[in-house]
Amino acid sequence: MLTLDFMRHAFIASTFIAVVSGIIGVFVVARQLSFLTHTLSEIGFAGASFAVFAGWSPLNGMLLFTMLSSVMVGQMSIKESRREAVTSAVSGLFIGLGILFLSLSSQTASSATSILFGSVVGISAGEVNQLIILSVVVLLVTMLMYRQLKFSSFDQIGANVSGVNQTLVSVAFLILVALSVSVAAQIVGSLLIFILLTIPAASAKYFTHGVAKMVVLAILFSLLGTWSGLLMGYLTNWPVSFFIAVIEVVIYIIALIYQNFIEAK
Length: 265
What we know:
Helices cover 84% and strands 0% of the residues. It is mostly helical. The protein has a single domain, classed as Orthogonal Bundle (ABC transporter involved in vitamin B12 uptake, BtuC). 45% of the residues are buried. The model has no long low-confidence stretch (mean pLDDT 85).
């Protein structure tokens, strides 16, 4: 299997995607921003569709659209009372734009499938290198602001007392989420981005409460899902994103059962 170039590229890419998703996902769940990953998935779909229409790399289109809109959507949705309305309005707009761009493109069918569900076969060496660079940028920035981000996400009162600039941290984190969405979409597609950015982290919080431990567990769950998904996708020729979704949901169900068992003792 690993003698094939596209499978080696897929495993390398999925490893970086899993690490980024696991780390960022812990803070996404803690800050209750799961809705944002769903919204950015539609925005990413429109960006990738625009890139196909313009003759660019889909990743570049995703980066352009998600980076420009993440802060705007995040700030518009600060108040929980209007999150649902903002999510519905923005999602509807960008889904419509994505469909429009694909309808204007000469590659509609194949491109739509790759954008929505990911494309393991289509990942080139150049795209892997670009993905690695983006992943490293996300990881480095996260490490630099880890203390402030942890305070802001898990202890807002302590963050205020410590003088953490929460507005700056929030904006920086929204941009990191946008980058992570664009990175993760290369494997699971824009339709299922929220799976890697929310479910592994949501599962991890039921097994442990330490932030560092949650991050490690979320990464392990993400790696288990992506690696196993790639393996089973290769063996069965079924969509990789399907297996990733099923594996992550099974892990989440096990986490819920474990939590209920602990509470029952």
